[in-house]
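Suppose a colleague, Dr. K., hands you the sequence of a protein chain of 298 amino acids and asks what its three-dimensional shape might be. Before reaching for any lab equipment, you can write down a predicted structure in token form. Begin with the sequence itself:
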Amino acid sequence: MIQVRFHGRGGQGAKIASRILGRSGFLSGLQVQDFALFGAERRGAPVVSFTRMDNEPIDQRGYIDEPNLVVVIDDSLLKEAPGQVFYGVEPSTPILVNGDPNALGILTRDLPPADYYCIDLNQIARQTIGRVFVSAAAAGATAKCIPAITPAAISDAVKCEIADSGLTADLAEKNVTAAIEAYRIAPMVNILRSSHALRAGELPWQAVPYLGSSRFAGPTIRHRGSAALRPTGNWRSERPVIDLTKCKRCFLCYLYCPEAAMQLDEENFPHVDYDHCKGCMICYEECPTDAISRRAEL
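The predicted structure, expressed as tokens, is then:
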């Protein structure tokens, strides 16, 4: 059985990536299982999604403790959420990271030992889709590691999943292009088959991934709120930029911002708190005067 674990942030498409991979495996004749782990996730918070594939019926459920492949859609999670990303990872476990291949050494410095690979999914998405929507590209790059999955199956899976999400046929075709391009340039990674067996009396760890042990029923928070003190804007792939000469001070961006990252000055003009803005671009969509533009985060 091949077990793949996707790590991303809310809104980046880890769930859709696992669904595309699962459907492409199914279309290639494999038994599959794909699902996401839902807890207190919100846009920008770390999320986990899973795909299992086998030639035989799959009788396991729940969290993937010992993955054959880990896919990290946001490289900041390598250091911000290491308890999740590296849980069950061995030195030989392949980790596919969305990042600049030329920066692999710097990116993985001081991280736990693993078999790291980098592919710039953001750049692929910008070139093929026009924006950083990396679900299809992440699934395509992952599928390269599974010989049973064909490019044709990936294309069909992307079309089905994108259609199910309500996007247009044109956008679906662009995502197909992104998936196939990622498949083409992704490294061929040797995924070892799972051979781990639970010891007698040992329960599978199916709690939320940051607990670290099935002995705990839930996370315990021992200090008061500190969200304002912790920068959370580093997951952004796009940023809103305000042209104050077009702003009519309607306050819609201020009201709609889900992270309270829009601040008003003494004259009630809005300004973006980039330390906490996560790039959801809701302000861009809601601005009636087009005073807010979207810029790629470099």
